[in-house]
Specification:
143 residues, Aminopeptidase, seven-stranded mixed β-sheet, 4 helices, 7 strands
Length: 143
């Protein structure tokens, strides 16, 4: 399995997976287009099919909850490929990448019901630092 930066040709496939990730979020198209344009989406493919992706957002100093952070907005792996190391490969790729010095840490949030996610992210050095305004678990990891 190989991790590569997403291109605009991957847009429709990423959008389909993103809807599986969170069907209630609005303006997904704009978010995905912006992230692809800024080289902030990585995909794992198997036989030319995207089986997982990670999408990052860069939060500046004005962000109210996670300023100056590289936010892991979406990390999704097709169910049939879970527990095979796809998520691990994606995490390793983003953690080894170089980012502008403006950003001090990685950040993410997830549903508190998903206890396995907390442990997954802790295995990459993330720490729980509280809750978001929406009640999700907030985690960070220094660069």
């Amino acid at each position: 399995m190989n991790v590569v930066l997403a291109t605009i040709n991957d847009f429709s496939e990423i959008l389909k997976l993103s809807i599986l990730f969170d069907s209630e979020e609005i303006c997904k198209e704009d978010k995905i287009n912006k992230a692809i344009s800024n080289n902030l989406v990585w995909v794992v493919k198997n036989k030319n099919q995207i089986i997982g992706y990670v999408l990052l957002e860069l939060f500046n100093e004005n962000h109210d909850q996670l300023p100056n952070s590289i936010f892991i907005s979406e990390l999704y792996v097709l169910e049939s490929y879970r527990n095979r190391g796809v998520g691990k490969i994606l995490m390793e790729k983003i953690l080894e990448n170089k980012y502008p010095k403006t950003y001090a840490y990685f950040s993410l949030s997830h549903d508190p019901e998903e206890k396995t996610l907390t442990n997954f992210y802790k295995s990459f050095g993330f720490s729980v630092v509280g809750e978001t305004k929406a009640g999700n678990i907030k985690m960070i990891r220094k660069l």
